[in-house]
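To make this tangible, we now present a fold written out as tokens:
***
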Amino acid sequence: MTAGDRLLLAMERGRKAVEEYLAQRLPPEGEDPSVLHRAIRYAVFSGGKRIRPFLVLESCRTVGGEERRAVPAAAAVELIHTYSLVHDDLPSIDNDDFRRGQPTCHRVFGEAYAVLCGDALQALAFEILSTDLVERGVSSQRALMIVRELAVASGPQGLVGGQVLDLQGEDGLPLREESVRRIHERKTAALICACCRIGGIIGGAGQAELDALTEYGRWLGLAFQIWDDLLDAIGDPDKLGKTVRKDASQGKLTYPRVVGPETARERARQACESAIQALELMGERGQGLRDLAWFVVARDR
């Protein structure tokens, strides 16, 4: 079995664990108000690679922790990610009609319900962290640390702040690599880095291990978003399941626009290599995370 095959099997195992947990944990569709709960399940179970939840599980495993304890945190991260996509697709932000090969949440349920769906997903994420982690044996002190990690990564210093910078980029921020990197570090890398740290905290990582996971997550997040920019610029919409060339049409600051596709590709690979180097002290235990880094800059969707 190749390293790629092992990675895909591990990712599929993680995806099933998280989705089975969410299927039981999310409110049923028929529960009042049913339109909200149908929208939540539509958004959450619309597919996706589940890379962020996998990072939580794999980081926990890498430092010797039990993956079972990390499943609620992995699910919470996915809810935050899904909420961000639902809001990102709204007419007032990116105005996308398709996500993961199907109509976006606001196209199916209407804009108002999509906004409320995203709001509910964010709240549910923190409800899960504040209750289910302790029930699975994570200490209350570590659970509180994890709540803070996710709150910071998804707030004004992370995802939301990055989204604001992204919107400002459309209004004429300087066409500099430094500007686009600053957007990526908040909009994408902050949450990906938090996934690695959260998994490490659950698994009982020492400071050196946590520092390594932090460095890995930062570089991986940058590589991931640069590659996403490339896929938007030159990718196949049928494989991606969403509209392409949107970044250029909206005048967004991206690596392909600022430095060109070939240099952007090289930047992504350099970030991938830096992520892998950060895991040196992990030895063989870090192989799954190394394989994921290469997967990120080889994917076509």
Notes: The mean pLDDT is 93. The longest helix spans residues 207-234. The chain has 15 helices and two strands.
